[in-house]
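User: ok so my PI wants both of these folded by tonight, can you help

Assistant: No problem, let's get them done. Here's the first:
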Amino acid sequence: MTRLLVDHVFAGLPPQAAPAAPGDTPPPAPLAVPATPEAERAWLAEERTRLEAFAAGQFDAIARQRRQLAEWQSQIEAALVTRGKEQNRLQKHLEHQALALAERESRCAALEADLAARRAEQAGLTADVRRLFAERTELEGQVAELLAEADAFRGEMAEADVLRREMAETRRTCRELADAVDALRAERDGWRQRLEDLRRQELALQRRAAELDELEARPPDAPQGR
């Protein structure tokens, strides 16, 4: 029974390789039991040395992978925090731009209404020009003022278009940041799953080492199990 267990460990878990999943490794072929208790104890000591060296290598590999996983997890969490802060900043900037655009649009609507009213007034004044030629200079001054306000209005409309384009670019950047955050979270979940797999492998190694210790502690004259 002792020899079968050790051969099963080395057959299913070669040095420097990850342990196979439970049930993946077929049971090893039965081996001949040593003829004498002294030969069995010598064989058991040799197999124990081999298993301890193998287990030490596996534990070192698990420790390195744990450190790498911890470093990756720290980097991912730091990147998530940074991305979250950047996304919040962009969101606040977007809200500020939206408020500014709403204010500009409100002002533009007021200017449009005022411009429409003044144009209506201009139309009435133009109709009165034929009767009131003496007031022509004053009417021309009002027309120039309206044109200047129209130019100012067009300038504000151009600024509003620029703000709309900036908002579209900001929304696109926010979507890209959200996609990047989702990718980082998926990568972090993958590393967590790998850590859980490594923990299960470590527990399997510990159980096998305990079984070997139990077999080694068994008296030489104890009946061999099958």
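One down. Here's the second:
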Amino acid sequence: MGVKKDDSDKIRSYLGEGVSDGVVGRVYSEYIVSSLNISLDNYLINHEEYKSRIHGIYCSIVKEYLGPDSQYLKKSDYIVKLVPHPISEEAIRGYVLSIEDLKIERSKIDIVDSSVSKDVEDIIGAELVKRGKSVDALSEYDKRNAILSVTDMVSCVRVYLDSLDRYCRMELSGWIDDMFRDVHGRNITIPEYVNYYKIMIGCNSVEEVREIMEEKHVHFLACLLIGRNIHKEYLGFDISEEEFGRRFIDVIDNKDWDENVKMDIVAGDYENERYRECVSGSLRAIYNSVWNCDTEDYNIEHMFNICKLRGYSGCSHGLDEVVVFVEEATKKYKVSIGEIYERILRRSPDVNEVRESLVLYRENENSENENSEKRRSESSLEDVLYDSIEYNEVIKCKIHDIHKDKNLEILPSNVYRILKKILEDNKLKRDDIEMSEFISRQLPSQEPPTPTMGP
């Protein structure tokens, strides 16, 4: 197949001037039958022979000027994959030699891109400034001489390769942005960009980049559906695709990532207050539907804490069980609390005392033995009441009542004397019968009459 001279020259610019007519014809034939709707340039950019050739040129230049152990050899793979148009050995050497040999015209300095050339000049210019030389005050010729005075060939190659590295990274960034928008139909977030960049840097072609991105998009959409269900069930709201990508792109490839998200909601730092609101709202709605009334906030709080320990969401079937359990237990607790208050303080508890006493009872709810649990709860409340200041007043009233029943008067000093003895005996103050007997034994045979003042 005949190849036009322009196409033949273009193929040689990519594969090298020394390639034979047979190689040129073969590559052109492959391009024609490839059925790819792309230009010859785009076809040659991704041709393996071109990439292999550029890889060899790049490595040989680095080894020649920077040594066989240079760190720039590690960058050879992805730089060769991303360079958008041909680089010849002459172009790289031409640039290096142009710094050494002033006879080569500026127009012949052919490096990858004009932006890279400008980048190189900026870096070298900065070096001049550091050495006390004013770049702006120099003519073009003097500037080139000044550059020669502060740089050597190794430095020039290093600057060039750094510039090429930055250029290729910018190219890759553009590809990721454009492809992501085309595949996902939206702009990429910063966490997604970082995640994709780490993957794409190892790709061999634009086609491979797109293939990986499309595969990840399918996986992403499946995870997005799971993530949205988790947010609706545990937090009561939906999450947008962009927000899901921003928050979870780095974890959705991990095993059991969804269970870890649930755990972070329930016991970690992710949307804790929204989780509390979601579950508490569901518990209150269930309570209202069953008993046709509302319940105190502290009861809802207790129900929520049980649900949190069990890892329930706002849609879990176990919520009904928790509501019924807490309500039935609370009714039993309130009866017990009321009985203890009547027995010790001779009155009913107020709403604040009921709430505080319920805390004591609920602390013992996890006991396997219900009777043991009940006794511990009652004992805890009894300890609180027996040690209260109000109970001192109850004992004082008891002392007065016993004296009154015997038609005896008692001096205040004797009341506090008896009270002091009772309070010093922990067993005595808790036994109502024994306490009554003790007080009776303290009765005097005859109390002195209360003196009266004359007119």
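The chain is about 70% helix and 0% strand. Residues 95-117 have pLDDT under 50 and may be disordered. Good luck tonight!
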